[in-house]
Write a structure and sequence with these properties.
- This protein is 30% helix and 22% strand.
- The protein is of the alpha+beta class and 219 residues long.
- The chain folds into two domains: 140 residues, Glutaredoxin, CATH 3.40.30.10; 44 residues, Antioxidant, Horf6, Chain A, domain 2 (2-Layer Sandwich), CATH 3.30.1020.10.
- The strands form three sheets. It has a five-stranded mixed sheet with strand order 5-4-3-6-7.
- Helix 2 packs across helix 4.
- The protein is elongated and about 60 Å long.
Length: 219
Amino acid sequence: MLKLGDVAPDFEADTTEGRISFHDWIGDSWAVLFSHPKDFTPVCTTELGYMASIKPEFDKRGVKIIGLSVDPSDKHEAWAADIEETQGTAPNYPIIADSDFAVSKLYGMLPADVSGDPGDRTPADNQTVRNVFVIGPDKKVKLILVYPMTTGRNFDEVLRVVDSLQLTAKHKVATPAQWEQGDDVIIAGSVSEDEAKETYPDGWESPRPYIRIVPQPKG
């Protein structure tokens, strides 16, 4: 199983926007890979449509989006028409055709011994293919979320996490519970008192010695 900090496995695959080499496709960007057990499933239809509607928010943050479903590309294209008609927005990002289960197995979402015709498998057979991976420009996995088939994913939360990841990658801070862009942050535990005083000469709020609260850094 993949862990946070692991290098996201590279792969080549066909997508609705042509064949890609995953690491080359990411380039110097951040990326979100989100997976689906099968085409024409109801919850996934809503997710793909919503993700398309908020793609400009990911674009602003320098984040590329890519979907995956355990079906061939021609089915993805037919599904896209349904998504546009029912959700109001067609997918405007590539969707990986994982009909040989290669990417799902590479990312630990399906057992290594899965094989055969994807058309013979039901959504329930692939129910573990319901992950969100956030991957940094260094190609390392920064976030893994796993959802059940019956619960639609909250992609606003993924945006919130991306904001936190990008902020904390640039500054030596951490974000507290329920943090939103612009809220106060916590000086990272790895920062010494002397270093903190140098970075934050105006001091900080400290309800406990190990909790050092400061305004969100600019830039």
